[in-house]
Amino acid sequence: MFSADAPHFRILRLLRDEGPVSRAELGDRLGLTRPRLLSEVERLIASGIIVEAGMAASRGGRRSTLVEIQPNLRFAAVDLGASSIDIEITNGRLEPVAAFHEVADIRSGPRAILQRVNDMLAKAKVEGAFERLDGIGIGVPGPVSFRDGVPVSPPIMPGWDRHPVRELLAREHGCPVVVDNDVNIMAIGERHGGVAHSVDDFLFVKIGTGVGCGIHLGGGVYRGVDGCAGDIGHIQVDANGPVCSCGNTGCLEAVFSGSALARDALLAARSGESPALAERLAAADSGELTARDVAEGAAEGDVVCIRLIREGGRRVGGVLAALVSFANPSMIVIGGGLAQLGHVLLAEIRSVVYRRSLPLATGNLPVVLSELGSRAGVAGAAVLASDLAFEQAS
């Protein structure tokens, strides 16, 4: 989708990621001839997307003028989760200038959720976060046709199939819009400003309400022909396991995810197998338990909570071991809501991956927790929004 080799695109990305740079340094860094570079820079200045920013330090001759991304650029980054909406407004350097969070059920349908997104953006505008938007990036918790900007048969998003998300937001806000699935935008965010910064080949595994994998290879996200690469939550891990939201049996997501862990915790509490969880259930007004209850029980030494986490880590680790043998990444990053389970989960995933993959593939393979945490999604959505705006600046 993005013309990554176009000179103007490379100039804008470099200025976005590194701040003000002189014309001379731009030419050196990008390998452009001086006439070509000056032509591109002057055109971008004329369009208003970059501006001059004072004088550079002397390199022994006449000092060069610095150029930078227009400070007034504004991008909206939207991360739709199964039960929440997170929005950040950023400047051209992708530094957040405003942030908003709201609890929302993705199952309430696209009209209700997108109306809430529009209302939150309207509030941001009233509060002075932007006058106009230069691009919107949005991630959704299900498969997406990246080319068409629509969700496609998302298992936990009833009513969203082929809904024209990109078209509706672009029409409402008068700016380019890019739509991707949530785990891809998290991978992009982690690559841009997290633990995977400067790592070209890695897997970002989101374990939350669902389970997915962002596949970052050769410096970019691999989406597959139809946009559904990395949907590891629907790999079967137990032929006799529970029915998944996708309709199949024993998927990884049905065996270990936020909802699966809550289900198993509730059973352990009601059966009396775990006194710690039974006590938490008795104190819960909702009559339900969550992954946080399991995490707290494990921290207190409850053997059932620890077992539930370790069994889940073993399932995830088995799937990732196969992916490591297949793709040979240089890093695995674990994120999503269940990353809060911490090092009990991480240690089990690591143990299985290292034990079941070839030594050549794991000899220098860190398996780490996300550095950006809950911000990974909005960070990646902002990168995609800026990339699209920069592409269209040609």
From TrEMBL:
Molecular function per GO: kinase activity
Domain of life: Bacteria
Keywords: Kinase, Transferase
Pfam families: HTH_24, ROK
Keyword Transferase: yes
Alphabetized Gene3D superfamilies for the sequence: 3.30.420.40, Winged helix-like DNA-binding domain superfamily/Winged helix DNA-binding domain
Family: Belongs to the ROK (NagC/XylR) family.
Record's protein name: ROK family protein (Putative glucokinase)
Organism per entry: Actinoplanes regularis
